[in-house]
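Hi everyone,

Forwarding the result from last night's run.
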Amino acid sequence: MKQFIFTLILTSIFFIPNAFSQRTNKVDQLLFNGEYESAIPILKQMIAKDSTNSKLYFRLGKAYQSLNQYVPAIENYQKAHRLHPNSTATIFNYSNCLYSSGNYPESQKQLLKLQAVDSMHYQGSLLLAKTYANLSNYRKGLDIYEKLIVRDSLNPYLHKQAANLKGKMQNFIGALASYLKAYELNPKDLSVILHVIQKFYEMQGYEQALDFCNKGLETYPNNHLIQKKKAQCLVGLEWYENALNIYKDLETRKKLNLSGYKQLGVCYMQTRQYENAIKSFLACGETFEKDPMLNFYLGVCHSRLNDNKKGIEYLNNSLVYITPAIKSSIHLYLAKAYNATREFQKAVIEYKKHFELDNSNPEVLYEIATTYEEFGDNKKKALKYYSQYIRETDDIGGERYEYAKSRILHIKEKIHFEK
């Protein structure tokens, strides 16, 4: 009998850890295979029996994070962090969830803790730089990218991100230099090609911009984004017939947005095809109804067709609608000031007034969307402006573009489950 009890005790000692190990291996296999929903209930059962195991909370947090369920992911990473405060993997994933959920101040706080534990943590440094950028602390973000470039000078991503922040700091020449370096290291990066073209275009270096358009089209034939940029450069060089051919092709392929129709109209007007110009201008719709230049162009076209009555009407409208650029700038600065004082409703009003006066800057749409989310949890309006931003921006693949895409998916999912 004693021998039997002794054998039973030995069996229990070796069997329990072995069973736990088997369940852990099963969970790891499920996580590896992307079967996160299957892993979650098993992990919860394991935690019920071993509530002081930080690795279990970490795995559960990872499962929720992979499903983009950031609230429960954060809760489990917090528990794992309390049990094992110096785990760099836990701090990083915890920070990443905070970042993905838009809690940039807390993400920054945790990432600074990560740096204190491991100052050479590469992914942590990248995320901290992105966090600083989203908090509009461009200088600190750029400092991190420049330090990383010293360690990894052949990484085109780092040069691209440095260029982005230099642009935000109004260092346009520095931004162009960094984009050119990123292009040198990876000439097939579409977003870099578009940024190089845009920077040259903004500096009125139309011929240089056109050269990069042609290089880009060698890699991406018929890419409508590069073709739009090329047409803009040709307009800048006053080569309207060449630009017109591109815009007509884009219209046939249904790749023209509203501002594209305006440019198409300009090309028709400059090549004296006034009736086609009028059709293109009118295709801009209500968005450009009060655009002073559009009304001016319509006035000119009608006058050239000897329809002077309509010509006078549109020309008078252009005088009514024309507003000094400084007025739209004041609305923009007011919006930013209200945001800083957390008067979000007033900020939205000012952003909208600015955009009504100057709809050339789609970044304002992004600001409206994020402000709606922050001040009132107004999901439908945020969704509307994120979607409009995605349609209007040329910054394809940029941080704001990717963030807006992720928020659109998140909001749609939330609205769906609230029905």
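Residues 325-418 form a domain with the Serine Threonine Protein Phosphatase 5, Tetratricopeptide repeat fold (CATH 1.25.40.10).

Cheers,
N.
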